Amino acid sequence: MTSTSKKTRNPDEILYFAYASNMWSRRIHICNPTAKFFDIGELEGYYIDFFDYFESWRGASAALQKGPGRIAHGVVWTVPKEDIHNLDRQESDYEGVDVTVKLSSGEDAVCRTYVYGRTKAGKRDLPSLFYKAVIVAGAVEHQLPEAYVQELVKQPDNGNVQGVSVPLDVEELRSSVKGYLSLIERSRSLLPGLLSTMSGDSGAAGPRYVVRRGASGPVVTYRPFENAEHGLEPEFRLLGLADMKG
């Protein structure tokens, strides 16, 4: 937060604080074409976590959680009051509330945002890689603090990239998160094919697989020399077989 200039807005608009997929311009304008960038902001005393399985994203969705000393960074948009129903429709599983957000100028602003799990407790789960990438794309686009971007990048995900029903261009998304994430499907269905080629150490000319015992069952370590053959990247080396069923 380094800006010293105060922001002004039209009284016929509201401020909306986006902390997840709607931080990315491409995403918010699908359902809210009249939204305009206003500022970046910080919501003190909150962080984001992920709950329940949403078929549209092939994984869990982000939700604000209270956390003393924590800060949820996000993007503040203006939305015409007459178009709030578009936001409400998009966030139909959430509840709209007002929160106080600190803008880049240091001033406080009352913003609308959406919270999840007030009427029923959600189950913590992993977001899809695609959904996580959309969140990271928004954070990178609007230059949120690098430490926060890295925190988002390190969030565990379920590896899903395919099958997302939200109409976003995967190649554009891949370009937007280049240098932060690789959009390569880490599907459970990959395991049978990987195991069928397993033959111990195949030498320097090809990939090597090492099987060892783990606390929850056998674990495969994949050392990729020709990793493109299996669509894996070097950082995805340990696969717990007991967790890869289905």
TrEMBL record:
Xref: CDD domains: GGCT_like
Keywords: Lyase
Record-linked InterPro entries: G-Glutamylcylcotransferase (IPR017939), GGCT-like (IPR013024), GGCT-like_sf (IPR036568)
GO molecular function, one term: gamma-glutamylcyclotransferase activity
Residues annotated as binding substrate: 16-21, 131
Active site: 91
Domain of life: Eukaryota
Pfam families: AIG2_2
EC nos: 4.3.2.9
PANTHER family associated with the record: GAMMA-GLUTAMYLCYCLOTRANSFERASE
Protein name: gamma-glutamylcyclotransferase
